[in-house]
Design brief:
Elements: E1 9-13, E2 17-23, E3 38-44, H1 46-56, E4 60-67, H2 73-84, E5 88-94, E6 102-107, E7 113-118, H3 131-135, E8 140-144, H4 148-160, E9 165-169, H5 179-182, E10 185-189, H6 190-197, H7 202-210, E11 216-220, E12 226-229, E13 235-238, H8 251-264, H9 269-284, H10 296-304
Parallel strand pairs: 1-4, 1-8, 2-6, 4-5, 8-9, 9-10, 10-11
Antiparallel strand pairs: 2-3, 6-7, 11-12, 12-13
């Protein structure tokens, strides 16, 4: 179904991945073998999972970033999946001679996942299209933290134009990382905010980082909810919704996408965080990464059912 022209346009920047997911009773011991009860082949990657979530939730989504050689099969598989979701892929850059990333993911009955991934180092040499083309009619930019090396100038230009830049952080950042100051919103996972700040407590880690950046800071903690700093520098919490999780793969990415969409729709961070928590909770109740993201009507009905 075509989205209305008034739907916010959001640019996602990242590196798409072809995911092979295996359901297992437990992660096999080193050097051993284990049978999987189910195999699924899906598209993934932090920004792409978020892009799928936003498209499902009602955003007009464009994607920019590197992919492998036009002749290799993984990229064609991913592009076909993105087309089904209605994501604009015209700004993706094909990299001659390189390979699109592939990951192998084992998912246990608890929903916890263990993965390994190959990313061709040459992908980081990509040159993105012109900023005027990428940022035209754009209400928000969402990027993977690892991609700052090739999009920091674009993020800086987006902020100059008053466009929010949301960074989904899924690995520790250097305290000299330019994204710390180029971003308007930094969404960490608990482990990553502690590693980045060098402090083993989420709230204190956020406070330390607040001295280095004017960005909104939050840390997601799975079923423990999200802790964040308000405009007065005080810690607040947004509760997670209790659900029976079967697969946590991509839940953080769905959270980031839902949060960015609500910001692009003009909502404040409190409402955006609650909406994101609902979308991530629903994703955890079904197998599959980003492709298991809920539709907008599901999230709204879920929120109406909550106290």
């Amino acid at each position: 179904m075509a989205l209305p022209a008034t739907a916010p346009r959001i640019l996602c920047i990242g590196i798409p991945v072809r995911d092979l997911t295996f359901r297992v009773e437990g992660v096999p011991a080193r050097g051993s073998k284990a049978n999987a009860s189910h195999l699924a082949e899906i598209c993934g990657g932090n920004a792409l999972n978020a892009a799928i979530a936003m498209a499902r939730l009602g955003g007009r989504v464009a994607f920019a970033g590197p992919m492998g050689d036009a002749r290799e099969t993984s990229s064609e598989f991913i592009l076909a999946q993105m087309a089904q979701e209605g994501i604009d892929t015209t700004q993706i850059v094909r990299m001659p001679g390189l390979t699109t990333p592939v990951s192998a993911i084992m998912i246990e009955p608890s929903g916890e996942r263990t993965l390994t991934i190959y990313r061709d180092p040459g992908l980081w040499t990509v040159k993105l299209p012109d900023a005027d083309k990428l940022l035209a009619d754009c209400q928000a930019v969402l990027i993977e933290s690892r991609c700052g090396t090739f999009c920091i100038d674009l993020c800086t230009e987006a902020r100059r134009r008053g466009i929010p830049v949301i960074v989904g952080v899924d690995r520790a950042m250097s305290l000299q990382d330019e994204l710390l100051t180029a971003a308007s919103h930094l969404l960490f996972a608990s482990e990553q905010v502690q590693e980045t700040a060098g402090i083993t407590e989420d709230g204190e880690a956020l406070k330390r980082l607040s001295a280095l950046t004017p960005a909104f800071l939050a840390a997601t903690r799975g079923p423990l909810g999200t802790i964040w700093l308000n405009e007065a520098g005080e810690l607040e919490e947004t509760a997670a919704f209790p659900v029976q999780a079967v697969d946590t793969l991509g839940a953080g990415d769905v959270f980031h996408g839902a949060f960015a969409l609500r910001l692009a729709e003009g909502k404040g961070v409190r409402e955006a965080l609650r909406f994101a928590a609902a979308a991530a909770a629903l994703k955890c109740t079904r197998h599959g990464g980003g492709p298991a993201a809920p539709q907008r009507i599901e999230v709204e009905e879920f929120l109406r059912s909550q106290p």
